[in-house]
Write a structure and sequence with these properties.
The complex is a heterodimer of chains A (281) and B (245). With 281 residues, chain A is mostly helical. Chain A has helices spanning 16-33, 35-38, 70-106, 108-123, 126-136, 141-168, 171-178, 183-195, 197-219, 231-238, 247-274, and strands at residues 5-6, 279-280. In chain A, helix 3 runs parallel beside helix 6 (141-168), helix 3 (70-106) packs across helix 9 (197-219) and helix 4 (108-123) packs antiparallel against helix 6. The termini of chain A are close together. Chain B starts with a strand and ends with a helix. The chains are: A mainly alpha (281), B alpha/beta (245).
């Protein structure tokens, strides 16, 4: 019998699916960033004469109800959707990780207060709370970001609190106290860097979910507004045409699907690669 | 450097360490011996005011600071800079994401000391470490190197007292001898006061001037090391000596 061998963590990263996910994300991000140069038409150019043309050499993904090039709008829509995902994850992670790490390190009543507030936010169904906020605030991309971030941060708080509590008891944290390092510096220099790995994995797993939620809010008319190009909004506008002009709704829908899938696959791969308990026989 | 009188440390009403008297002067080495759970490490941590959640009473003076009455800022100022703690698990005591040099530089800056490369290299060389080790991460060095780095840190910070909690128990025999050699040399050359916690009586006999034997949180015997270890008065001390291989 051979002894189990611990698989090397990064940069071994041998998960082919995760690499494929990362490449796909890189492709989507590049396409979004280079949209002004890649797009064959201006994003908002209305051309009623050429409305609802099927995919062709001139319009690879066809045109929509007002004659805008769907391929162009899918490229520009990536900018909006990815920006929303980045903004939501940045706001949620910043708030959640800060509160979680403080709760986990401090323990006692500080942890109790922070975690009970977290529990209150977790008690609300995320989409319902997002919807309520999006209705109360003016429909816009900023509203979508705020609405989703409000429902997303508690997960990071909970995850970080648990990781930080485990780190807070490590000898190197005791050693830092013995060196006279004040608590805020211990948190920033020792607890945070050593407890951030599960959060990074979760961020990549969540990116897909955020894009889907943002698309759902836009689909319901509570997010990006015309004439902005956003994948969810494009699906919402094209839904009535699905049986007659399938391309209007299918291509933005596929963009959402592929991007969400790529982030999920990357997240799973990262989780596997960074899990020190993973043993391969 | 260390003066302890009538120290009692308890958790939830249960006293876990009682030390009537403990003095460590400059250049002196005092060892606290006893088996696990006898209150040795608790006593050590109480000297730095780091027994969180414990009821501590008595008088503790370390480097002239009244530990039980000092403000948190005052305590932080002596921790590391005047009193250094060398821990049992040398590598576990180093943050895995921080290079040793970065850790040392931060500690020096924290205490308002010059943090130049020469200062750090001198400290490393004083414990027979290649200064190149300062560029490494904790997982890239051995246990013995990590323990010597902890001592180098104390030297760089100009510590006058080293509290060493089982400093050699996680090391193999040859490395143990190196670390003990470094501690002994620093004590002689720099006049460092050394308070050593150990269950290793063989180690204690080679380095300590005086010994306190603790059992179940109480000091059962104390006196000059040579006397206590050669003519133990308490049955528990005899038991410990008989358990030596």
């Amino acid at each position: 019998m051979t002894a189990p061998v611990l698989r090397r963590p990064l940069p071994g990263f041998g998960d082919r699916f995760a690499v494929a996910g990362a490449l796909l994300i890189a492709l989507v991000v590049l396409a979004a960033l280079l949209a002004p140069w890649l797009a064959p038409y201006p994003a908002d150019e209305v051309d009623p004469v050429n409305a609802l043309l099927p995919p062709s050499g001139a319009h690879w993904f066809g045109t929509d109800q007002v004659g805008r090039d769907v391929f162009t709008r899918v490229l520009y829509g990536g900018r909006t959707s990815l920006s929303i995902a980045v903004a939501v994850l940045a706001v949620s992670a910043a708030a959640g990780v800060t509160l979680g790490v403080v709760a986990g390190y401090a323990g006692g009543w500080v942890r109790d207060v922070i975690m009970r507030v977290t529990d209150v936010f977790l008690a609300f169904p995320a989409l319902l709370l997002s919807l309520t906020l999006a209705v109360v605030l003016q429909p816009s991309v900023t509203t979508v970001v705020l609405a989703i971030a409000v429902t997303w941060w508690p997960w990071y708080a909970r995850l970080s609190a648990s990781a930080a509590a485990s780190i807070a008891g490590r000898p190197y944290v005791d050693a830092a106290r013995c060196l006279g390092v004040p608590a805020p510096l211990i948190i920033v220099r020792h607890v945070l860097p050593n407890s951030v790995t599960p959060v990074l994995v979760q961020l990549s797993l969540d990116a897909g979910g955020v894009i889907l939620t943002a698309a759902a809010l836009s689909y319901l008319g509570l997010g990006a507004q015309e004439p902005a190009a956003e994948w969810g909004l494009m699906v919402q506008q094209g839904q009535t045409l699905f049986t007659t002009n399938w391309w209007v709704v299918t291509f933005p829908g596929l963009a959402i699907l592929v991007t969400a899938f790529a982030f999920n696959v990357l997240g799973e791969g990262l989780r596997n690669a960074l899990d020190p308990r993973r043993i391969v026989k | 450097m260390i003066e302890v009188r009538d120290l009692r440390v308890g958790y939830a009403g249960r006293v876990v360490a009682r030390v009537p008297e403990l003095d460590v002067g400059a250049g002196e080495c005092v060892a606290i011996v006893g088996e696990s759970g006898s209150g040795k490490s608790t006593t050590l941590l109480s000297l730095l005011g780091l027994t969180e959640g414990a009821d501590v009473s008595g008088n503790i003076k370390v480097c002239g600071v009244d530990v039980l009455k000092a403000a948190p800022r005052e305590l932080r100022a002596i921790r590391g800079a005047r009193v250094a703690l060398v821990m049992q698990s040398p590598q576990a005591a180093l943050s895995p994401t921080t290079r040793l040099g970065v850790l040392m530089r931060r500690a020096l800056k924290l205490h308002g000391l010059p943090a130049g490369g020469r200062v750090m290299a001198d400290a490393a060389e004083a414990v027979m470490l290649d200064p190149g080790i300062l560029r490494r991460y904790p997982h890239e060095i051995s246990g013995g190197q990590a323990q010597r780095f902890a001592i180098a840190l104390a030297i760089a910070l100009g510590a006058e007292v080293i509290l060493a909690d089982e400093p050699t128990s996680a090391l193999d025999v040859t490395v143990q001898a190196e670390v003990v050699g470094v501690l002994r040399r620093l004590r002689e050359e720099r006049g460092l006061a050394l308070l050593l916690v150990s269950h290793d009586l063989a180690l204690v006999s080679t380095i300590a001037d005086r010994v306190l034997v603790m059992r179940d949180g109480a000091v059962v015997e104390s006196g000059p090391a040579a006397e206590v270890l050669s003519r133990p008065a308490h049955p528990y001390t005899r038991e410990l000596l008989e358990a030596l291989p």
